[in-house]
Each structure stands twice: as structure tokens, then as C-alpha cells.
Amino acid sequence: MLVNHTTLVSEPDLARFVNALDVQLRRDFTPVWGRYLLPWVARSTEGLDSKAWQLHLWRESRDASEAGMMGHHTTRGADHIPIGHVFIESCLRYKEPWTRVASHEALEMAGDEWVNLDVARTLEDKTVELWPRELCDAVQGVGYAVNDVVLSDFVYPEYFIENSDGPYDHCRALSKPFSIHETGYSSILSIKNGHARRRDRYGAIYPEWRRDARPFARKNERWRSIV
């Protein structure tokens, strides 16, 4: 369910996005991940099922914890219902299509609705890395058009399988598993000799000024619960 809280996105533009997202989910995403969400527009959350997954479009971030973000997804309530947010002013400021950000958040909600899945790999020095199963972070900045609407690239299951043959993402931007596109990033927990350390890995041309703001941000509770 999408709820538009801003006049910066018109009803026709929102309708075009929802139609394109539905095509992306049915045609591109579901065949490889086996999951599907039905996107539809609600004028508000009043009177709706409290367990409905939600993606909200806001004019700007609502508090200091969201400052600098273009979008993020998390959960709410005792039932941990998935909920995502997109901030249109931030998208305009960073010259990022809001539709790609909204697609990014929708796909990541579909792939890891409770923001708590990680994939482990063991390096040659016996370091264990936990990679978050975020489906768009590694290819952030890469996208493709569906009916002239720009949507986000996303990784395939093969991305999380060491030595797999691929393909690793829908746009074929990656050449091996557990890699980062030059405009993407991932936050990885490394564990060695009983010590855990979180490190952010960025692509070669990921802008320095975006690293602190982290325009796309994930739920920090993931790391707090592990560490």
C-alpha cells in the first residue's frame, strides 16, 4: 500500500509508478525471488487493515533521525509490520528519481521484510562476514525503466552464493558474488577471534559527502541486536 503525503507527486505520476512497480514485481522480481507484493494506492491509513504493509511518500524527513535520507524501511508495532518511507525533497536535492528510491524500498521490503536477515561467508583468514540481505544497496544508483518510469536494480539469489555463476543482479551491473557496484554500498559485520566489527563498504565512486548522510539508510537495530 502506498500513501502519498505530498503535493510534489501528482496522482497521475503516482499511478504510473504503481503500474510500473507492479510490472517489475510480477515480471522481474517474483520469478527469481519467489515473492510478490501487490502495490496499490490509499489516500490515508484510516480504516485500513493495521497489518497492511505500507510505503509512504513524504515531502521531507520528519525528524533528525531521518535527516539526509532519501528513503528507508523498517518495521512498526508489536507485530513488526514492514513500513517504508521516501522523502521527495531529498530525492530532488540529490538529483535522484524518487521512483527509483521508492522501488528500492519496496523491493527490499519484499526481500527482507523484518530487516533482520544476513548471509554469512567465511574468508580465507577465517573471518566470518555477515552481509545484510538488502537487495538494492549493492547496486544503489543503478536502475532501468519500465514504461518510462525509472526503477531500481536489485540483486539475484546468486549474489549471496560464493562462486556461483550468476547473473548476480537484474541489470547485469555486477560480475561476482558479494561485490559492490561503483555507486553502491553495503554494511558488513566482520567476526574474527570472537571480536565483531561493523564496517561500511562503498563503491569506487560512491560520493564522500553521501557517506555520513547515507541517503538510503537501513535499520540500525539490525546491528545493535547482533553486536
| Class from secondary-structure proportions | alpha/beta
| Run of helices and strands | EHEEEEHHEEEEEEHEH
- Average pLDDT across residues? 91
Biggest beta sheet summary: 6 strands, mixed
Secondary-structure topology with pairs:
Layout: E1 2-4, H1 11-33, E2 41-42, E3 54-58, E4 71-76, E5 81-87, H2 88-93, H3 98-111, E6 118-122, E7 128-132, E8 143-146, E9 149-152, E10 185-192, E11 195-202, H4 208-213, E12 216-217, H5 221-226
Parallel strand pairs: 1-2, 1-3, 3-5, 4-12
Antiparallel strand pairs: 4-5, 6-7, 7-10, 8-9, 10-11
Helix pairs in contact: 1-3
Brief summary:
With 227 residues, the chain is α/β, with parallel strands linked by helices.
Question: What this model shows, in words?
Answer:
The chain is 24% helix and 26% strand. The protein has 227 residues and is of the alpha/beta class. It has one domain. Helix 1 (11-33) runs parallel beside helix 3 (98-111). The protein is globular and about 55 Å long. Residues 219-227 have low confidence and may be disordered.
Structure characteristics:
227 residues; 5 helices; disordered C terminus; four-stranded antiparallel beta sheet
